[in-house]
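Researcher: I need the complex structure. Ligand is adenosine-5'-diphosphate. Inputs:
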Amino acid sequence: MFEKILIASRGEVALRIHRACHEMGIQTVAVHSTADAKAMHVRLADEAVCIGPPAAADSYLNIPAIISAADITNTDAIHPGYGFLSENAGFVDIVAEHGITFIGPSADHIRLMGDKIAAKAAVDSLGIPVVPGSDGAVTSESQARKVANDVGYPVLIKASAGGGGRGMKLAKSDGDLAEAMSMARAEAGSSFGDDTVYIEKYLEHPRHIEVQVMADSQGNVIHLGERDCSLQRRNQKILEEARSPALNADQGSEIGEIVSKAIAKLGYLGAGTVEFLYEDGEFYFIEMNTRLQVEHPITEMITGVDIVREQIRIADGTPMGYTQNDVKFHGHAIECRINAEHPVTFAPSPGKITDYHQPGGLGVRVESALYSGYEVPPHYDSLISKLVVHGGTRNECLMRLRRALEEYVIGGIDTTLDLHRRLVEDPEFVDGTYDIHWLESFASRA
Ligand code: ADP
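Model: Output:
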């Protein structure tokens, strides 16, 4: 087993990985920007190396600095967390060239899933259902028109290199098509340096449902059930549930098994998430994330599987501690993403935490790197805490979540705690009948 792991990330996920390492008797190396010198991940790690100035491009994305930090600390393996370099295939190649193990899938699988057209074709051939649309890239307006007429309006023009919802434009009718296509291409070109686009039928009221899978180098593949991440604002997830209130256990297991089989055929290694839109009883693949997901704790709460620990074991070549038969689902879990943002306007709110008290008690887990006196820097993602609650049933989970939200104090800055407090009282949320557009209208009613 590895003796020392460098954690190429910051914030709550760096702590999450540190904890898994220490429980396994593995030493940790933190890397940090100058803005994060007093961050909790730096304080807890066995060693810490400053890798650059505040801007992420010069620190957490600075590959030479991270590799040097790994070299001087004699690191065996690097865990990339999520975001930053976690889905950068070039980084994975460089890590391997330095004789260090990357804790994640192969560079080839990261590359494949990063190219949306290739990813869609690959999963389609492996038996995963996809959104109807163009067969690969669309290069001319006449070709676009033909596809749109075949699948029926509305359609989405999407960037093959897309991410974060950019390079995606809606055409409601034939009259919108030319403009949507040129706007999508222009945005894709400027954001990703690649203006390849493709077309998909636009689903009007889907839910976002994703399947967590893990595969080891002995050929054992398991799924850990689904998560429902339909509560989103601007394509950013706000609150996630496991399992999905829209599916019964059989439906969840059915899609889980389809995904497991496909992943096995692909020869994938490590943890991954296959994301779907779900509408009128049908699943439609949208993308595969080849990394640890922000919302992984809700899956851990209902299965008892420590996903980060399994990632480390798999990267080390050790068999996973579970087969599919060992995976049992217990109760319901919900995660609230708490951001340093105003709860109504969503304006960023970095600054000093003057008061901090986190909730506890049975079934309550807080994933956060905050402490009283800590200064939330303005340079990074606004996620500052994840409140994760487990209950025997969805109803018990909701009662516990309301109680935990009452207890949580984060003073000194604006946070989205109040948004969650309103959300958990809303009858439509409690009903569980929401789709991916519902939260935007809920948030604007404040
Ligand atoms: P990105 O990688 O840019 O986040 P995704 O393909 O994952 O792009 O899609 C992001 C979001 O856009 C989805 O969660 C969903 O809300 C919406 N979306 C994507 N494809 C469709 C579609 N065919 N119909 C309706 N909404 C879609």
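Model: Summary of the prediction. The longest strand covers residues 221-233.
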